[in-house]
Every structure is written in C-alpha cells, then in structure tokens.
Amino acid sequence: MPEDRVDDVLERVDPAKRDFLKTVIVTTAFVVPTIASFSMDGLSVYEAHAQLASNVTLSDRGAKERFAPVDPDAILARVARLPIETWNYRGQDPPIRHIGPMAQDFAAAFGVGPDDRHIDLLDASGVALAAIQALAGRIQAQEVELRALRAELRRLQTDVAAAASLTDAVV
What's this model's pTM, rounded to 2 decimal places? Predict the structure, then answer.
C-alpha cells in the first residue's frame, strides 16, 4: 500500500496508535488486509489481527513448483546459530515485548522469503518443522543407542553376578 494511502486509512484510527500501525503497515504484509477489512476504531493491532481468525496460507502442492529437498540437520544447525532476541516495534508501548529473529538474520541463514526485511510465517514454520525433524531423528538414534547400552549393562551385570558366584564357591 503506498504511504499516502496508509495515511488516509489511518486517519480513522486512534491517533495514539497511528505511528505504530503505520510502521507495521509499511514494513509488514499482515496488517494491510486487516485494516481494509474492518474498522480498527478502538482496536489494538493484536485485537485486529485476532479478528482475522487465523493465518491460513495456501500450501497446496498443485500451487507450487521447483521442489527441492532440505537437509533437516543443516537447518537445525542454522537455527542453533540464529540470534533470537526480545524486542518491541518502534512506537509500541515499551512493556509490550516480542521474541524472534531479525529478518536480516533469517534471510542470511535460510535464503527464503521475499526480502531481508520480512519473515514469511510459512518459511518460519517450514524452518521450525525441519529443525523438529532433525531433533526427532537425533532422539530416535539416542533411543536405539540407549537400548543397546542398557542391554550391554544387563549382560555385564549378569557376568559380574556369575563371577561373584564362582568366587563365593571357591572361597
């Protein structure tokens, strides 16, 4: 939305919220349809966003092309190095905090999305799911190893008990 149109739309919004909302509208994609869809009079950006009911994203295989596999372990390694901070938007009440990476860091780490100023929730979800897959794989491997170690421990305990019985019989 061009900035001059943003100012026109925001004239109907509480003056105390205009600077924050303008920053969000000009720098993100999710609020523009929110403001155009219903009156924001008296609503915080969070209440307005909640009125959308969900963040449903088209993810139909038929709408996509140029598929490529990802390496969940490599994604997890990049997630582990990704700076995660708490912060608030300029013009937002200081006690309101958010948590997450900066778009520039996310773009540098994963090379996805429209630019290095925005994080598409679809990309954030995909990164999180790939990292979860890597962690699930590690847990599964550790469970296999733990079962083997427990079996070895039981065998060694049996051997020690047998050796102790022989020692008792000799003495």
Answer: 0.65
Please tell me the distance from the alpha carbon of residue 24 to that of residue 41, in angstroms, as a whole number: 17
* Spatial CA neighbour of 75 closest among 142, 116, 141, 128: 128
Helix H or strand E encompassing 87: strand 85-87
Mean pLDDT of 117-127: 93
Question: Domains along the chain?
Answer: 1-56 (no CATH), 58-171 (1.10.10)
Residue 87 token pair: 């912060």
For residues 58 and 44, is the Cβ–Cβ distance under 8 A?
Answer: no
What residues does 98 pair with on adjacent strands? 87
Contact between 17 and 44 (Cβ < 8 Å): yes
In the predicted structure, residue 8 carries a pLDDT above the cut 80: no
